[in-house]
Write a structure and sequence with these properties.
It is a single chain. The chain is α/β, with parallel strands linked by helices and 306 residues long. The protein has 2 domains: 184 residues, Vaccinia Virus protein VP39 (Rossmann fold), CATH 3.40.50; 104 residues, Orthogonal Bundle (DNA polymerase, domain 1). 41% of the residues lie in helices and 15% in strands. Strand 2, helix 3 and strand 3 form a beta-alpha-beta unit. The chain is globular. Bound molecules: S-adenosylmethionine. The site of S-adenosylmethionine (SAM) has 22 residues, from helix 2 and strand 2.
Length: 306
């Protein structure tokens, strides 16, 4: 089985406008599909992933004579972008990509504990060096905190009911596996609300976001990447749910706007200048949607450094 089928592959690479010998940052290496695309088009690559499986897989996938000396793989959080570039002695780059969320490999490996479809110990950590796991969230967070996470990170309508049932269930014994949690969620969601996909989908999304701190610091890293892009270079970000898309959309709007003063002020006092221009957003084609159901919720947003 393939590690991960890259989403919006051509759209991303075409928009990065990869040039021979120029340097690109892929913060979310995953199965190295987009990363290899950059190398195939003649670019040099710096890629990060928190997951040791992604790094190991990419080392094998990219071990081709034509890529030798053209890529650097770093097991790190892309939020350390500035430090990573500095430690490599790289000042500016010619394009960057973030393909947010998790890979098919992470979902499809039961022991990673990301999926409500396969039985595995509740884990959901992108990196096995992270201290917090899904087990800790499910078994130690208060009912109120759990409900807040489900509501904030997945807009789960039945957040309070699910949190109450989780806390009741763990009074007898800890909730250890993905299927135990999925069953508790299923029992908490009314039958008529179970028609649109698996009832545990939102709960698993919310817990995964909490475990990996997926939404925190996203706007900061966007600012960091923009600050190190050469003029005319682009940043492409693929999002998979409305919460992360909202953060990206807002950050892109901020950096592509001159004055950000209160509209009521007669003159500008902020002096803010746009550092990028927006090149809009792209959704998967009908053909991609038919071939890869995991692309269904993807949105690619693009900005270009002025
Ligand atoms: C959707 S996959 C990327 C797929 C990739 N574009 C491809 O073509 O195969 C997302 C990857 O980003 C990694 N990831 C998510 N958040 C990260 C972070 N903050 N720092 C580094 N890697 C991260 C995940 O471990 C996962 O492997």
């Amino acid at each position: 089985m393939s590690y991960h089928v890259p989403v919006l592959y051509n759209e991303c690479l075409d928009n990065l406008a990869v040039k021979k010998g120029a340097t690109y940052f892929d913060g979310t290496l995953g199965g190295a599909g987009h990363s290899e695309g950059i190398l195939m088009r003649g670019g040099n690559l710096i890629a990060t992933d928190l997951d040791k499986d992604a790094i190991a897989n990419a080392k094998v996938r990219l071990a081709k004579p034509e890529y030798e000396g053209k890529f650097t793989l770093v097991r790190d959080n892309y939020k350390n972008f500035i430090n990573i570039l500095d430690s490599l002695g790289v000042d500016k780059i010619d394009g960057a990509l973030l393909d947010l969320g998790i890979s098919s490999h992470q979902i499809d490996e039961p022991e990673r504990g990301f999926s409500y479809r396969f039985d595995g110990r509740l884990d959901m950590r992108m990196s096995d060096e992270q201290p917090l796991s899904a087990y800790d969230v499910v078994n130690t967070y208060s009912e109120e905190k759990l409900a807040d996470i489900l509501y904030l990170y997945a807009e789960e309508r039945f957040s309070r009911r699910i949190a109450r049932n989780v806390v009741n269930a763990r009074k007898n014994k800890p909730i250890e596996t993905t299927l135990e949690l999925a069953e508790i969620v299923k029992q908490s969601v009314p039958m008529q609300a179970q028609k649109n996909g698996h009832p545990a989908k939102k709960t698993f999304q919310a817990i995964r976001i909490e475990v990996n701190g997926e939404l925190s610091g996203l706007d900061e890293v966007i600012e960091d990447i923009i600050s190190r892009l050469n003029s005319g270079s682009r940043l492409c970000i693929i999002t998979f749910h409305s919460l992360e898309d909202r953060i990206v959309k807002k950050a892109f709007a901020l950096h592509s706007t001159d004055c950000i003063c209160d509209k009521k002020l007669p003159i500008c006092i902020c002096g803010h200048k746009a550092s990028v221009k927006s090149l809009g957003k792209i959704k998967p084609t009908k053909e991609e949607l038919e071939n890869n159901s995991r692309s269904a919720s993807a949105t690619l947003r693009i900005i270009e450094k002025i």
